[in-house]
Amino acid sequence: MFKHVSRFCRKMFHIEEQKKSRYISISRNEHNISRKDISENALKVLYRLNKQGYEAYLVGGCIRDLLLGKTPKDFDIATNATPEQVQKTFRNCRLVGKRFRLAHIMFGKEIIEVATFRGEHSNQDEQNNIAKRSQSGMLLRDNVYGTIEQDAVRRDFTMNAFYYSIKDFTLRDYCGGLKDLQNGIIRLIGDPKVRYREDPVRMLRTIRFAAKLDMQIEPTTAEPIKHLAPLLKNIPSARLFDESLKLLQSGNGYNTYLLLRKYHLFEQLFPVIERLFTQNNNSYLEKMIEQVLKNTDYRITNKQRVNPAFLFAAFFWYPIIEQAQLTCVESGLLFHDAFSMAINDVLSEQCRIIAIPKRLTTIMGDIWRLQLRMKKREGKRAFAILEHPKFRAAYDLLEMRASIEKGELLALAKWWDEFQHTSVEKRIAMVKQLSKTNKRRAKH
Ligand code: ATP
Ligand code: MG
Questions:
Q1: Smaller CB count within 10 Å for the chain: N or C?
Q2: Residue-wise pLDDT tens digits, 18-50
Q3: Per residue in 84-138, pLDDT tens?
Q4: Span 295-312, average pLDDT
Q5: Is 366 one of the annotated active-site residues of the chain?
Q6: Quick check: 404 and 413 in contact, CB under 8 A?
Q7: Is residue 78 within 8 Å of 54, Cβ to Cβ?
């Protein structure tokens, strides 16, 4: 996996020896990054900024991934131009973010993110409202601009603080990232406790990269997480929604989930689920989460589409059932009514932490309600269910439930499997058969 890094790192050691400066510079023939691996749009942005007299570098995860021989998810740029100067340079530019102001250069579907070098904060900056910290040390605003050196140490991990120049094709390593990358180590820059307090989402990023890159978390980077995990409560729910998708839908969801549990982060994100975890780790709920995440990883590896509504529908199915059953016992409500109440309660508790958008919760509701409807198949019901736009997703959830719970659900899932794949005549016969069986049962 690290073959690219090790290949050029060997060449690099002599450079490291001779250079005791603030960064290690690796020239074009000593690294494996080539222009053909870089997005054309990112190259355009770099050239244009350079032409206007600004410094501009490819930075962060894209360089890390190229060094590892992986395809980057996106290409980010760091520059000494302010967001306003970037905006003046590009017509297709939009400024975004209040906490961390950025320029987005839009090329159809592709967005190139351009960030101005960040610097250290002074008291004056707080007064001018360009920097702000909460009592817990969290950065509420980080719009103080600085030099490339200052920018490098404000990034999260050593492996994310590389800068690549298109002017001379050199690569700069400011924080020892090459060595860490070569050794497969994830290390926060600076004092981990301070850096996690500044931005608790960095804890999630540590876990995400550990799972994605199959790397070890350096002990002082790992150690504070369990203790500081509750700080995630301070993160806006919309940001946690974005992060949760990156965690669970990037192709390493199952391993990420195991690490999130190990570091007590899962309970911060999904308390509704965590409350039902068991000692032996073998409840229906735990089996469901394992299965849906493994299926999702498989689909992503095979370039199949995944829908977060389905993932979340599977996540919360058993918590909803559990709560509905409890309400029935406690209040004597009909199961159907208790079930609707449970959907509302579980979603409202969860959405306070992770803002799952309405367009997804609507689909989740359909998938859940179809689970109840799929039991009643007589008359025209089965045909109506088959026509429902969310039938396929509901059937997939039914199938997973059947493989977990076994018993009667296995027969029900098999029936629906046959019903959807057979001719209309056979479907009519299957429904008739159901009525006969029911009558026979009623007689006995
Ligand atoms: P990927 O895009 O594969 O998820 P990435 O490292 O590129 O990984 P981005 O979210 O695209 O992640 O961020 C780009 C870069 O910005 C990072 O590599 C890092 O240098 C910096 N960065 C992102 N988030 C933070 C953060 N919370 N704190 C400090 N630096 C950050
Ligand atoms: Mg990125």
A1: C
A2: 444 589 999 999 999 999 999 999 999 999 999
A3: 999 999 999 999 998 899 999 999 999 999 999 999 888 888 888 888 989 889 9
A4: 97
A5: no
A6: no
A7: no
Whether ligand 1 lies within 6 angstroms of the CB of 208 is answered as no
Total Cβ atoms within 10 A of residue 392 = 12
Q: Which of 76, 79, 154, 180, when mutated, tests ligand 1's pocket best, judged by the most ligand atoms within 8 Å of its CB?
A: 76
Cα of 9 vs centre of ligand 1, distance in Å, is 23
Distance, CA 242 to ligand 2 centroid (Å)?
A: 13
Q: Taking the complete model, does pTM exceed 0.85, yes or no?
A: yes
Specify the pairing of strand 162-165 against strand 56-59.
antiparallel
Residue carrying the six token digits 């980077």: 221
Q: Decide: 240 and 271 in contact? Cβ < 8 Å.
A: no
